[in-house]
Specification:
The structure holds three protein chains of three kinds.
Chain A: H1 4-13, H2 20-37, H3 72-77, E1 82-83, E2 86-90
Antiparallel strand pairs in A: 1-2
Helix pairs in contact in A: 1-2
Chain B: H1 3-8, E1 11-22, H2 61-73, E2 77-78, E3 81-82, E4 85-88, E5 98-101, E6 108-109, E7 112-113, E8 116-125, E9 129-134, E10 144-148, E11 155-161, H3 168-185, E12 197-207, E13 217-222, H4 225-244, E14 253-257, E15 262-265, E16 278-279, E17 286-287, H5 290-299, H6 304-315, H7 319-327, H8 329-339, H9 349-364, H10 377-388, H11 394-407, H12 411-418, H13 426-439, H14 441-448, H15 455-466, H16 472-483
Parallel strand pairs in B: 13-14
Antiparallel strand pairs in B: 1-11, 1-12, 2-6, 3-17, 4-5, 4-16, 6-8, 7-8, 8-11, 9-10, 12-13, 14-15
Helix pairs in contact in B: 2-5, 3-4, 6-7, 7-8, 7-9, 8-9, 8-10, 9-10, 9-11, 10-11, 13-15, 13-16, 15-16
Chain C: H1 9-17, H2 23-35, E1 42-45, E2 65-68, H3 95-102, E3 107-111, H4 145-153, E4 158-163, H5 169-175, E5 178-181, E6 201-206, H6 209-217, E7 248-252, H7 262-277, E8 281-285, H8 293-308, H9 326-337, H10 340-353, H11 359-379, E9 385-389, H12 405-409, H13 416-420, E10 425-433, E11 436-443, H14 449-463, H15 468-471
Parallel strand pairs in C: 2-3, 2-4, 7-8, 7-9
Antiparallel strand pairs in C: 1-3, 4-6, 5-6, 5-10, 9-11, 10-11
Classes of the chains: A mainly alpha, B alpha+beta, C alpha/beta.
The structure holds magnesium ion and zinc ion (ZN).
Zinc ion (ZN) binds near residues 31 and 153 of chain B.
Chain lengths: ~90, ~475, ~475
């Protein structure tokens, strides 16, 4: 159903590191669940529209009126690393 | 096809543009934070635009309104119902791990501006700003970036054209036309240097006559009209060289460095992009109501193309003048103000257009807004009218304009004070011409002999005598009259 | 009155309003109980009673509220049961918690839960499993297991939970209390740390149906911060019905489920008898696609979750594993921060949305969802409510289902189709099997909460469930 290669590809998309152990287990477990899910393949659904929300609201829009922002010290308080008033991260270019 | 064939082949360029326009709303696309204009980092944020756990987006009604205005201005089909999708990718500038963007059900579909067809216009949110800080001084990271979320969530309209452009300068010219249109709409500051207008180009080449599209590359984020032209030229040269050498262009995203003219690949090819788009479950669909359409329609100003047509049709301007004034909004506005409510009563439209587009721009600088100068529109109109009535010569009028630019004022008063009034009718001018012919008998002889070239000597003589206040045409007329030609 | 914590929330509110009970004393009594809780039901307990000025005149009269960990509460840990949010104290409070505080229900405690609400046993919490007060060797259900155990054991008068595929109803059933999953959209999700956005809905876990109605009454309302929220078309009233005359209950013929325990089935059938004695008619009803619910759910919920959980990247809050390069920072932070079940669902959801698989999985599941919603709409043309057992089993032993995710997922067999259709449903205690609680689920059309609560109230009165054994926990 889903092999090691696919597990590794999906883990990369999801930015998840998996140990050797986890890769194997994930392949088995996901295959099991997908096997069950495959059940929906039995149905003929060609003319059926997809539903994103069962109870659908339309045009729930916001007036273009400013609201107060958070104080910067509050914003940065939760950050793992801060420098010069911003969130410090390893460079994406590195 | 062999290598010798490829060197002989002529190629044509196919360009499509993707333009991101920051909308000039008061608040961000999905939260109530005011838009940022250079405030200290991370002072324009809230739980929504920081992607805090549990925070939810709510779409800005004004951004939808601006989107509709743009769609109307570009002749798009406005979708009765549009939805937002999530575009999933990890990057520090994306606090939620996805960008909310319109995908397969955008607000506007199709349309055209000038000769270029519009593919679609959709709404989305801008990303945060990353500042590279090099060595951070921390123990581990030798290289780091600082994330500032002030810009994050700014409303963007993305305009995607069809691949209808064929060369770099036309692309830049079309982009200027688009910018003027957006500026007139008032939906954006459209400032490329400040990033409120950003352009990517999809570029491919193909043998002339072929209708198939070649493999395209995407040239990212060029932030001036000059860079766009140079970037496209450089990329076309690169592709042509590859193909002529028998190689194949690879589909990739590229960066153009305007300093070195170098083109580099932005993303490694092995990391295939898979954005896993799906309908954003946190947002409700936008269903365009008659009220929304009416409001957008009512807010539409006259657009540059329509204005150019009107200048040609109603004022008889040349196509070039009409186009120039209509697409330089501030020049067009000055021109119309000078023309006054009663149209061409004071000055003739075409000469006035020439004075605005040439003399005035030459004195104020290409990007200046004449409305902010010392020259009152009415003063320029009066000056152009005086030229028309031969009350002042072209040369005299240029001197008057210098004075107007320097310190404003009334052209009549300046002409009087500086003695710049034209040496008018034949009564005043005839004796001076007569004296000039008398002083240059050899010239007079050659003129009588049918040789017209030396007339410049006479004109020059008269101009010297009148300190440039005589009209060249009138002098010529009097010479012919006095010599019986 | 000797034990003020023996009162239901409604009774306590009435006593405070009439001046017979001091709200500070009430808060302190619960605060002491919550602080002494040994079921691991709480992740945080208030250290002092809030100022009680004027609360006696508010509708909820100062009756304290336990809140599932995943609701953002300003300055108070809100970790969603996850290590990746360890120590996270949000700068804002969820709309529904704010609304209830305005109505006079102060925050007593935050309750333990399955990590990011993914689970049916509360064994997926980074802060340890919650124990079932009826039998400490068993699970309380999940994912709102802490809220359920808190209310069932009597250390909180009532609690907020969230239900994505059964996370209020199933733990309510397994702990012998009442749990209401409202119509999608009637309660704001703003500030609820998301699991699956199109399914998540907050609701009450309470000792009886009246308390559920009272709490829900003050939860509903459109919120300008949640564009999927809407105004409930009716004012929610406290239930009064004692009879079910003229009511038709539909038992889905397609939703029998082979794994239902005999004891659970027996309580279910007895409850149907009770309903008939109260005047109800019981019929079979067709829900031809309901059996596909679980499959569709385990595509939609993980897909949305995989995207919702992308924000946990170690940049702005919560846990970060330091690394020299960005990619390693991301992958190791998420590896260490997420538990096994969360990783599994992120993987499943990422796979289902990935290029080449979207149509076969996510697209198809959304179409199945349409069919299930249509099935319910058709059913409600002939019946007033659809009824099922809430969960197929009584509370199971800790650790007994952790090795097989699929077996765990089957817990949601009866609750998931209703979630997919966005409908309101309640679970009430239907008695015991092997000395352990069994839940009865009753679902109605969208916005039928008043009718659902009334019918549940009539059944509750007739069943006369004795919660003492759980309360003694
Ligand atoms: Mg874009
Ligand atoms: Zn914001």
């Amino acid at each position: 159903m889903i092999d090691r290669e696919q597990v590794l590809h999906v883990a990369k998309l999801a930015r998840l590191e998996l140990s050797e152990d986890e890769v194997g287990r994930m392949a088995t477990e996901l295959s099991g669940v997908l096997g069950h899910i495959e059940k929906i393949g039995e149905l003929s659904l060609d003319d059926v529209p997809p539903t994103s929300h069962v109870v659908e609201v339309e045009n729930a829009l916001r007036a273009d009126v400013p609201r107060p922002c958070l104080p910067r010290e509050v914003v940065l308080e939760q950050a793992p690393a801060v420098q010069d008033g911003g969130f410090l991260v390893p460079s994406p270019q590195a | 096809m062999s290598a010798t064939d490829t060197t002989a082949t002529e190629y044509e360029t196919v360009i499509g543009l993707e333009i991101h326009v920051q909308l000039a709303t008061n608040t961000k696309m999905f939260c109530g934070c005011a838009l940022s204009f250079g405030e200290p980092p991370n002072t324009r944020t809230c739980p929504v635009c920081l992607g805090l756990p549990g925070a939810l987006p709510v779409a800005n009604a004004e951004a939808i309104h601006y989107g509709l205005m743009m769609g109307m201005a570009l002749g798009s089909t406005l979708a009765p119902r549009s939805i937002f999708h999530r575009k999933n990718y990890f990057y520090p500038d994306s606090p939620k791990g996805y960008q909310i963007s319109q995908y397969d059900e955008p607000l506007c579909l199709g349309g055209q501006l000038g000769d270029v067809r519009i593919h679609r216009v959709h709404l989305e949110e801008d990303a945060a700003k990353l500042v590279h800080v090099g060595a951070s001084g921390r123990l581990h990271a030798s290289d780091a970036s600082i994330v500032d979320f002030n810009r994050c969530g700014t409303p963007l309209a993305e305009i995607v054209t069809e691949p209808d452009l064929r060369d770099a300068s036309t692309a830049a010219e079309w982009l200027r036309m688009l910018r003027a249109t957006l500026r007139t709409l008032g939906v954006s500051d459209v400032n490329m240097e400040e990033g409120s207008l950003r352009c990517d180009a999809n570029i491919s080449i193909r043998p002339v006559g072929s209708t198939e599209l070649g493999t395209k590359t995407e040239l990212k984020n060029m932030n001036s009209f000059r860079y766009i032209e140079r970037g496209i030229r450089a990329e076309v040269a690169r592709q042509t060289a590859i193909v002529r050498a028998g190689g194949q262009v690879e589909q990739e995203t590229l960066h153009f460095d305007p300093r070195t003219e170098a083109i580099t690949s932005l993303r490694s090819k092995e990391e295939a992009h898979d954005y896993r788009y799906f309908p954003e479950p946190d947002l409700s669909p936008v269903a365009i109501t008659p009220d929304m359409l009416e409001r957008a329609q009512a807010a539409l100003p006259e657009l540059p193309l329509a204005r150019a047509e009107r200048f040609e049709r109603d004022l008889g301007l040349s196509a070039d003048s009409a186009h120039l004034l209509a697409f330089r909004t501030e020049l067009g506005d000055f021109f119309e103000a000078a023309l006054g409510e009663n149209g061409s009563q004071a000055a003739e439209p075409q000469p006035l257009a020439n004075w605005v587009a040439n003399e005035l721009v030459a004195r104020l600088g290409t990007d200046a807004d004449p409305a902010a100068s010392n020259v009152a529109p009415g003063a320029l109109a009066r000056l152009v009218a005086m030229v028309g009535a031969k009350q002042v010569t072209q040369g005299g009028a240029r001197q008057v304009l210098d004075k107007l630019v320097a310190g404003g004022g009334d052209p009549d008063a300046i002409v009087a004070a500086e003695g710049l009034g034209a040496v008018g009718g034949s009564d005043e001018l005839a004796p001076i011409v007569e004296a000039a012919l008398a002083a240059n008998p050899d010239v007079a002889d050659r003129l009588r002999g049918g040789e017209m070239k030396p007339i410049g000597v006479i004109v020059g003589h008269v101009m010297r005598e009148t300190k440039g206040r005589a009209d060249g045409g009138e002098i010529t007329r009097l010479v012919r009259e006095q010599l019986g030609l | 009155m000797t034990d003020i914590t023996a009162l239901t929330a409604k009774q306590a509110a009435d006593a405070v309003a009439s001046g017979d009970l001091d709200p500070t004393e009430l808060f302190e009594a619960y605060r002491a109980k919550a602080a002494a809780d040994d079921l691991n039901a709480y992740t945080w307990v208030a250290d002092a009673a809030p100022a009680a000025n004027g609360v006696a005149t508010t509708p909820l009269a100062g009756v304290p509220l336990a809140v599932k960990d995943l609701f953002a509460t300003k300055g108070v840990p809100s970790q969603a049961g996850s290590r990746i949010l360890e120590g996270y104290r949000p700068p804002y409070t969820a709309s529904v918690v704010e609304r209830l505080a305005q109505a006079g229900a102060p925050l007593l405690a935050k309750t333990n839960q399955d990590e990011f609400a993914m689970g049916s046993s509360n064994e997926n919490s980074a802060y340890g499993p919650v124990l079932n007060p009826w039998d400490r060797t068993r699970v309380p259900g999940g994912s709102s297991g802490g809220s359920a155990a808190a209310v069932a054991s009597g250390s909180a008068p009532w609690a907020l939970g969230t239900d994505t595929g059964g996370s209020i109803r199933q733990p309510a059933a397994l702990t012998g209390i009442v749990g209401l999953k409202p119509t999608y959209g009637t309660v704001s999700r703003y500030g609820m740390i998301a699991f699956a956005s199109s399914l998540d809905q907050a609701g009450p876990l309470t000792r009886d149906v009246t308390d559920a109605a009272l709490l829900y009454r003050h939860m509903v309302g459109q919120d300008h911060c949640d564009s999927t929220s809407l105004q409930h078309p009716e004012e929610i009233v406290l239930p009064t019905a004692q009879r079910l005359d003229g009511i038709t209950l539909g038992v889905p013929e397609d939703l029998t489920g082979e794994g239902v325990e005999a004891g659970v089935l027996a309580r279910f059938e007895e409850t149907l008898k009770v309903a008939e004695e109260l005047g109800a008619k019981v019929v079979r009803v067709a829900l031809p696609h309901a059996d596909y619910g679980l499959s569709a759910y385990y595509v939609i919920a993980p897909a949305e979750a995989s995207s919702n959980l992308s924000r946990f990247d170690g940049v702005r809050y919560g846990k970060r594993v330091d690394a020299d390069d960005l990619l390693t920072m991301y992958t190791t932070t998420r590896h260490d921060g997420f538990g096994a079940e969360v990783k599994r669902r992120i993987m499943l959801g990422t796979y289902a949305l990935s290029s080449g698989y979207y149509d076969a999985y996510y697209g198809r599941a959304q179409r199945v969802r349409t069919k299930i919603a249509e099935d319910f709409a058709t059913a409600f043309q002939t019946v007033d409510f659809v009824v099922t057992p809430t969960a197929p089993t009584v509370p199971f032993k800790l650790g007994s289902k952790t090795s097989d995710p699929l077996e765990m997922y089957l817990n949601d067999y009866f609750t998931v189709p209703i979630s997919l259709a966005g409908l309101p449903a309640i679970s009430i205690p239907a008695g015991l099997s092997e000395g352990l609680p069994v839940g009865f689920q009753l679902a109605g059309p969208a916005f039928s909460e008043n009718r659902v609560l009334d019918a549940a109230h009539a059944l509750e009165q007739a069943i006369g469930f004795d919660a003492t054994a759980g309360r003694a926990g």
